[in-house]
Amino acid sequence: MKKVLGLFMLFTMTVGLFAMLGVNKAYAMGTTYYVSSSTGSDSNAGTSSSAPWKTLEKVGAMTYGAGDQILLRCGDVWNETLTISNSSGSPGSPIVLSSYGTGSKPGIIRNNTTSDLCVKVNDASYFTISNLDIGNSAMGIWFNYNDSFGHAGLVIDNCHFHDIYGVDQFHPSSAFLGIQFSAGIAIGGTVSSERPDYIMVDGVTVTDCSTYDAGSLMVSCQNFLINLGPTVIKKNVNIKGCLMEYNGIYGNVISETDGGTMEDCICLYNGSRQITCGSTALMLGVLWNYTIKDCEFGYQQRQGSDPDGCGIDYELSCHNVTLINCNIHHNAGVGINLFHNSNTDWYSDYCTIDSCTFNNNNQNAYVASGYEIYDNNGGHDYRYGAITNNTYYPMPGIGFINAYSPTTTLSNNNSVSEPVSVNLALNSAGSGYPEVSASYTYYQDNVWQAVNGVISYNDTPRDRWTCYRYNSGSSTDWLQVDFGSAKTVSSAKLFLYDDGGGVKAPSSYNIQYWNGSDWVDCAGQVKAPALPAGNTENEVTFTSVSTKKIRVVFTHQSGSYSGVTEFEVYGNNLALNSIGGGYPAISASYTYYEDNIWQAVNGVISYNDTTRDRWTCYSSGNSTDWLQVDFGTAKAVSLVKLCLYDDGGGVKVPSSYNIQYWNGTDWVDCAGQIKSPALPAANAQNEVRFTSVSTHKIRVVFTHQSGSYSGVTEFEAYP
User: SMART domains of this UniProt entry (predicted)?
Assistant: First the structure.
C-alpha cells in the first residue's frame, strides 16, 4: 500500500523529484544512489537514474550515512546477496533501500540453496527497506547483530517474500548461525558472553508485507547463547497490514520481544512443509507486553505425523500478552495451544484472550484434544490471566477449554448456534459451484480469487480480480457468480481494490440478477458507503430475489479500471454452514469413510468425482438412509433443494426421496410435497416445495436404487 510523508515547504521540489522517480517516501536529504541490472555499470557514478550502478556487489562495497538512499530499478532482478555494513542512519533520516521507476518490484532472487541469502545488513540502526521482491533463498532479509547492542529504527515496508525455505532446527545451516529457520525477515545474531541486557534493536516496524511459501514472515533467534534461557533481544516490534499465506512452517513468529503490536494481519494456509517440531499460524514465545488485535488465523496445515497445526501457540514465557478481536478458524489442530516448551517454569502469565471468535478448529489434530483452547499442563501453563468475551461455534465433541488455573478469570465465553458466515459466493476450493466469471480478466490476475475468502489489498501476492488493460478498453465490465442452482439473495459485499494507478474504485456499480433469459437490475439497492470506496468494504442491500446467477456491473473511472479482492453474496439458505461448526448441524444415518458430511451444507456444489465435495452413504448396507439438518432453533421451512450426486456406479440417484420434519417427539412427512423434476435427477438440482412448517430439524429420507446408494453434494432449506 502506498504511503505519503509530508515535508516542509523547503523540500517541496525534492518531493516532486522523488515522486517522478517512483520513490515511495521522502526523507531528510542525503545522497541517492541508483542501481540497475539491465542498464547500469559499476563504473558509473551511480548518483543519477541515467548512470546507475549495475551490481549489488558494488552497492555492498560502499558505506552509507543518514538520509542516503539506495534505489533499485523496478522490473530488474539480481541473483546475488546484497551485504551492507558499517552503515546507519539517524532519527528522521534513515538509510533507505527501495526502488525507482515503474513496473514490478525490483527482485533479489537466488538459487534456493541452504546458504542463499538476499539481503544482509550488519549492525545497523535507522535503516528502511521497502518495495522489494525477495525470493528463492534460505533467508530473505537478515539484520545481523553479533555481540552488537543498542540499535534502533528498523522499517520493512511493502516487501514480498516467497520461496524461502531449506533451513530449520533439524536442517541447520552454518551460513545462518543463531537463526532457527528460514523466514522472510530475521533480526538477531550471536552473543559470546553474558551481559546485563541483550537488547539488540529497539523499534522494528513491518508494514504491508506479504509472504508466500516462506518459512515464516519473521524468525526466532533462540539459543543464541548457551544456557542463557529465554531472553529478550528486540523491543517495540510493530507489525501491521501483512498477509502471510502458504508458508512452509509458520505464518509469523513473535519472540524474544518486549512491547509492540501485531494488527490487521492475515495468516492463512500455512504449514505447507514437513516440520517434525510442528507448525502454527502464529508462534509466540519469550514475549512481554505485546498486543495482537484484529487478525485472522485460519486453515493452518499439519503434515504427516507432525504435531500442532494450531491457530496460535503460546510456546513459552509469554507475559502480559493481549489477544483481542481475532478470528481463529479451520485450523488442523486446536485454536490456541498453551505450552511450556521443555521447562515447566516457562509458563505464560498475566495474558488476556478477549473478544475472539473460534470455529471449525481441530480439523486434522495430531492428538484429538476436544477443545478450542488446550492447556498442556492441566491449567498451569496460563496463570493470572483472563479468557473473556469470546465466541465459539461448537462442533460435536469439541469444548471450549480443557483446564484453567484458579488464578485465571474465565467469563462470558459464549457458545452460539448460528454460523459465522452465510456467504453464498464463497468457493475456497476453486472448483465446482459457486462459479465465478468476468467480462475480462487481466492476465496476471485470477478471477477465482474474487471468491476464495481472502481479502487483501496488498499489491503482492496478487489475491484479486481486476479488468486492467494496457490499451483503451470498455468503459464498463462485469463480475458474475453462478451458484449452480437457484438461491434466494438479498445483499452483497464488494471489497474494492485500488492501487492508485491503473486500477481504481469504479465511478459506480450496479447489482443485477439473471431472470432466466436476461439480466435485470436488483430492486431497492441501498449502498454503504453511497459512493464506491477503494480498499475497503462496500455493502449493498436489495429486495430479496431467487436467482441462479448474480453479477456486479462496474462503470470505470476515466483512464482506469476496476478490481475486487472479494465478492460476497448473502441470502437465506437456512441449512448453509460454511464454517463446519455450530448450527445448522448436519448428521446422517451413515457416512462413507472417504466423505465429509459437512460438505453437504458448505455451500459448494460439485459433481466432480475427485474433489469429493459431497456426502454419500455408499456401503451402508441399508435400503434407506437419511440426511438431517438441525437448525438449533425453530425455523419456518417450505422449500428444500437437493443437488444429487451420481457417479454412475455405486452411488446413484435414489429411486425416491421424502422430506420429513421433527414435531418435537417424532418424524412426520411434510404435507403437500411437490417435486421438480417429478423423478430424482442425477447431478442436478432437485426441488421440493411443501406446506410451511416450523421445526428445529428437517431431513430427507432416500430409498436407494437396487445395488447402489445415494449421495448429495448440497442440501439447502428455505422459508
Answer: PbH1
145 residue type, one letter: Y
Task: Provide the CA 46 distance to its chain's centre, in angstroms.
Answer: 40
CATH number belonging to domain 585-718: 2.60.120.260
Q: 454: burial class by Cβ within 10 Å (0-12, 13-18, 19+)?
A: buried
Q: Can you give the pLDDT at residue 147? A: 83
**C-alpha to C-alpha distances, 255 to 133, 218, 233, 237, 306, nearest whole angstrom:** 25, 9, 9, 10, 22
pLDDT given at position 222: 53
What pLDDT, on the 0 to 100 scale, is given for residue 190? Answer: 78
Q: Which grid coordinates belong to 693?
A: 412448517
Please give the helix or strand (H or E) that residue 60 lies within, else none.
helix 56-60
3-state SS, one letter per residue, for 338-374: ECCCCCCCCCEECCEEECCEEECCCCCCCCCCCEEEE
Q: Which three cell numbers stand for residue 107?
A: 527482485
Distance separating alpha carbons of residues 630 and 698, to the nearest angstrom: 7
Q: Cis link prior to 719 (omega < 30° from 0)?
A: no
Strand partners, 339: none
Number of residues assigned to the chain: 719
C-alpha of 39 from chain center: 38
Residue segments in the chain with a per-residue pLDDT below the cut of 50: 1-27, 223-228, 419-421
The answer to whether 477 touches 438, Cβ cutoff 8 Å, is yes
Cβ-in-10-Å burial (0-12, 13-18, 19+) of 523 comes to exposed
pLDDT tens figures, 36-67: 999 999 999 999 999 999 999 999 999 999 99
Distance CA 706, CA 67 (A): 81
Distance CA 546, CA 29 (A): 62
H-only helix segments in 365-460: none
* String of DSSP letters for 311-322: EEEEEEEEEEEE
Strands 127-130 and 308-324: unpaired
Q: Which of 424, 414, 288 is nearest to 348 (CA)?
A: 288
Where in the chain are the domains?
110-415, 435-571, 585-718
Options 2.160.20, 3.10.530, 3.40.50, 1.10.10; which CATH number does 110-415 get?
Answer: 2.160.20
What is 435-571's CATH number? 2.60.120.260
Q: What is the three-state SS of 630-646? A: EEEEEEEEEEEEEEECC
Q: Which of 18, 39, 35, 40 is nearest to 27 (CA)?
A: 18
Cell 462496500 appears where?
538
Please state, in angstroms and rounded to a whole number, the distance separating the CA atoms of residues 71 and 33: 6
Give the list of residues 6+ apart from residue 243 with CB closer than 8 angstroms, or none. 209, 210, 211, 265, 266, 454, 456, 458, 461, 463
Return the bridge partners of 625, or none: 702
What would the grid cell of residue 77 be? Answer: 532482478
pLDDT confidence of residue 387: 94
Q: Report the distance separating Cα 437 and Cα 483, nearest Å.
A: 11
Q: CA-to-CA distance for 508 and 553, rounded, in angstroms?
A: 9
User: Would the CATH topology of 435-571 be identical to that of 585-718?
Assistant: yes
Asked whether the beta carbons of 88 and 127 are under 8 A apart, the reply is yes
Full DSSP string of 490-547: EEEEEEE---SSSB---SEEEEEEE-SSSEEEPTT-EEESSS--TTEEEEEEEEEEEE
